[in-house]
C-alpha cells in the first residue's frame, strides 16, 4: 500500500479531543501569558502538534485558512483539506492563518474586523521555536497584575493592540504547547 | 447508533460556537453574533447558556446548574439532567466542587476560583435595547462608544425616584470600552463580576455570545453624586442567619408573615450544616 499521510493524524475521538483542545485554547486566550499543553493531532511536518490541533478544533468549511511560507506544503494542504474541509485563502481573506512570524508577513494584510463587527478579524497561529514566560510585559483583561511572554515582534503587536477593539488575535504554538495574545492585551517592553 | 454526540451538539456547531467564544474573550463585553441552534427546550429556558456549556464541557468536568441561585428548581434540574444524559458529566450542587457552573440570574455567593467557568443564560443581551429598538442603531452606538443614552436613563431614574432604581440587569462598563448587560443578575452581584473565573454569556434567541476574561475591569455605571450601590433586603437569612448573602422574600401565610432566605441554596445549606442558625431555623417552615 502506498502511504497516504493526509488521511492519518486526525482526532481519534473528535468530540472528546476537540473539547479538551478547545478548553486549552480558551484558557490561554482568556489568560494571556499562560502556556498550556495542546495535543490530539499528528499533522504533517512542519506543522506543530499544537497548531495542527488548533486547526482541527476551530476550522471547517466555514473558515478560510491561509498557510504561510514553509507550512504551505502539498502534505499540509491535503491534510487540512481532508480533515477540516476548510478552503485555502490568501492572507487578506483568511479567518485563520498559520506560519512562522517572518513568513506570515505584515499584520496590515490581515482582516482586523469592522467598527460594528470587530469579531470579523483574523486569528493568527504563529509557530515558534519555543514559548517562554519572559520578555514582553503583558497587562489587561485576563491578567492579574502583569504577565510575561516572549513575543516575536513587540512593536508590530503593540500597533495591533492600539487598534482595539479592532485587530488580530494570536495563538503562539511550539510542539504541543500553546499560548495566546488577544488584541485586548497591553504590551510593554520589560526594562 | 442511538446515542447523542458528546454534549448533544454536532461538531460543526460546536466549532462555530467555540470561535465565537474566543472572539468574545478577545473583545470583552462585545456581543459576538452566532448561529444559535434549536435546542430541545424553549427559548427563554437557557438555550444560549446550554449551547455555550455544550461547547465548553469536557468529560472530566463537574457541572452545577443554578436558577435564581437555586439548584433544585425545574430549569436547573432539567439542564443538569440534559447534560448528564448527553455528555455523561458529573453534576453537583456544591459550588466548591463544580468546574463549570451554568447560571440563570445569580452569581454564587462563594468566591469562584481560577479553574472554574461560569456560563450565564441571557434573555436580552443588548443593554441599549429598551432605549433603542433598532439593532442597526445599537451596533453603531457600540462602535462609536456612544453611551450617553444609558446615562440619561439612569439620570431619569434619579429624577423620578430619587435614586437609581434599576435593581437587576444593571449595566456595566467592561474594560473601559463596551457597555454590557450582565444578564438579569441582581445589582447586588455586580461587584462579583470582577472575578478569578472565566465568564461566558449566551443568548440563544437573540443569537449572541459575549465574555469577560478573569481579572477584567468591570465598572457599574453611576454618577459621582449618586454612586453605585449593591443593595439587598435589610435582613438576615431566617434559616442560616447569613448577613452577607442575597435574600429571597417568601410570603408565609395570608396574615402577611414572611421570611427571608438565601437565594443561593448551596450557600445556605453549607452554612446550616456548619451550625449557623437563623431566626426560623428548626421550625417547620412549611
Task: Give a brief outline of the structure.
The complex is a heterodimer of chains A (191) and B (286). Chain A is built from 5 helices and 9 strands.
Give the arrangement of secondary structure elements.
The complex is a heterodimer of chains A (about 190) and B (about 290).
Chain A: H1 14-30, E1 36-37, H2 49-58, E2 65-67, H3 74-84, E3 96-100, H4 101-104, E4 123-127, E5 136-139, E6 147-149, H5 154-162, E7 169-174, E8 177-181, E9 186-189
Parallel strand pairs in A: 2-3, 3-4, 4-7
Antiparallel strand pairs in A: 1-8, 5-6, 5-9, 7-8
Chain B: H1 11-26, E1 32-33, H2 47-56, E2 62-67, H3 74-86, E3 90-91, E4 100-104, E5 117-121, H4 135-143, H5 148-161, E6 172-174, E7 178-180, E8 198-203, E9 208-212, E10 218-220, E11 247-251, E12 258-262, H6 265-273
Parallel strand pairs in B: 2-3, 2-4, 4-5, 5-8
Antiparallel strand pairs in B: 1-9, 6-7, 6-10, 8-9, 11-12
Helix pairs in contact in B: 1-2
Helix content of chain A: 25-40%
Q: Write the CATH fold name of the largest domain in chain B.
A: Rossmann fold
Oligomer: heterodimer
**Percentage of β-strand residues of chain A:** 15-25%
CATH-derived architecture of the largest domain in chain B:
3-Layer(aba) Sandwich
Instruction: Note the gap between the termini of chain B.
Output: 47 Å
Biggest sheet descriptor of chain A? 6 strands, mixed
Count of separate structural domains of chain B: 2
Identify the CATH homologous superfamily of chain A.
Bacterial phosphonate metabolism protein PhnH
Query: What portion of residues of chain B is helical?
Result: 10-25%
Any low-confidence stretches of chain B, pLDDT <50, length ≥5? none
DSSP E strands of chain A, number: 9
Determine and state the CATH class of the largest domain in chain B. Answer: Alpha Beta
